[in-house]
Amino acid sequence: MRILVISDLPQFVTGGAEMQAANLIEAWMDAGHQVTCFGRRMGRDPVFVGKHEVPVRRIRVVQRFGRALRGISYLFSLTMLLLRYRGRHDVIYTRFLGEAALTASLLKSLHLLDVKLVSTPANTGGTGSDTQFIAGLPCKHCFVRLLDTQCDAINLIAPAMVKELRNVGFTGRNFTHIPNGVSIRETPPSTSLRPHYFLAVGRVVRQKGYDTLIEAMSMIRDQLRPGLVRIAGDGPERFLLQAQAEAAGVDHLIEWLGELSHDAVLHELEKARVFLLPSRYEGMSNAGLEAMERGLAILTSRCGGLDTYIQSDMGWTVEPENARGLANTMCQSLATPTPTLAAMGERNRAFTLQHFGLPQVAARYLALFESLRATRNGGNRT
Questions:
Q1: pLDDT-based confidence at 382, cuts 50/70/90?
Q2: d(Cα 225, Cα 252) in Å, to the nearest integer?
Q3: Which 3 state secondary structure label does DSSP give 235?
Q4: For position 379, what pLDDT does the model report?
Q5: If you average pLDDT over residues 105-130, what whole number do you get?
Q6: Whether residue 139 has pLDDT greater than 70
């Protein structure tokens, strides 16, 4: 099968959606399929994903002079690429239900493109969600109808996305439900042997809720020890958050690890006992999935993704932006016996192997692609 992926890759953009796209590309190519990738931040040369060389093409965007010109230049550049390579792909897969999906949908509606189109929204809720992007467009109902009719499948990685998309006008006729996947590695050491307690991984931005975490820690600071919370990642809010922590008297309780390589993140996960995800919103947190695969208990906000799977024997869930609830739950976690924490981590790893293993997830996508190619009619798919 010939698959066109429209997404940036981790070599150019460090983000969960880009990492997930790269993981799927590698798995699809491992299975013998051809993959090409278009992205706005690509270079000219092919890139390696795992052991595979992936042909890439750059979507050229005018960055200056405002959002309107950026959008128009993106539409024009991607249109030229899609028309130039028309007929060379069986399926187009877009990561984000945004400009790429809209461009391909428009060309399909004009009968300039005859190819199956599958799009995966990457976020739910908040300022970064795909639904908010669509809701902010002029004539949004026209764009919703365009996507609803021309996308052969809209794959929802988080259950909360169903309601959000229906609320902006999607019918749900083409919704599918394939989660993000994670690589399965050798069994990690038991959390009972690990030196660190809480670990959070992610860009240091408002979405991740680190300000709520700092407020929660200030409420229970007398019960916490130095370096109890480690945060891997960097971003525009780091210095602001460090100032907040200092003002709250909890700066000594947090170790800011900065931007780490993927291997270094995995190493940190293998040294921690509980994974913290206090986000305001998420799609399906890749870092959270990797934490589960590495055998950590999970403490997450109800951010529309991973929290829907966490049962009481796997970890804890709290409301987003609820500092008091987060503080109480952190205390509950700290009071949990070490063997119980280890058992939570073991359940999380077993659950991940059963539901989120990358080979199974990639195979489910391939089965979806094949089913779309085999029929000219839409329909509900699961």
A1: very low
A2: 8
A3: coil
A4: 42
A5: 86
A6: yes
pTM (two decimals) = 0.87
CA gap 150, 171 in Å, rounded: 12
Q: Pick left, alpha or beta for residue 296 (phi over 0 → left; psi -120 to 50 → alpha; otherwise beta).
A: beta
Rounded CA separation 216/323 (Å): 5
Span 115-124, average pLDDT: 88
What is the DSSP pairing of strand 198-201 with strand 274-277? parallel
Residue in the block written with tokens 């949990």: 336
C-alpha to C-alpha distance for 134 and 143, rounded to whole angstroms: 7
Q: Which amino acid is at 99?
A: E
pLDDT per residue as tens digits for the range 211-265: 999 999 999 999 999 999 999 999 999 999 999 999 999 999 999 999 999 899 9
Phi-psi domain of 353 (left: phi exceeds 0; alpha: psi -120 through 50; beta: other): alpha
Question: How are beta strands 116-120 and 153-155 bridged, if at all?
Answer: parallel
Per-residue CA distances from 119 to 98, 125, 153, 221 (Å): 9, 17, 7, 44
Contact 238, 204 (CB under 8 A): yes
CB burial of residue 357 (10 Å; 0-12, 13-18, 19+): middle
Mean pLDDT of the chain: 91
In terms of residues, how long is the chain? Answer: 382
Evaluate whether 126 touches 251 at the Cβ level (below 8 Å).
no
Which strands make up the sheet holding 34-39, listed edge to edge? 56-58, 34-39, 2-6, 91-95, 116-120, 153-155, 175-176
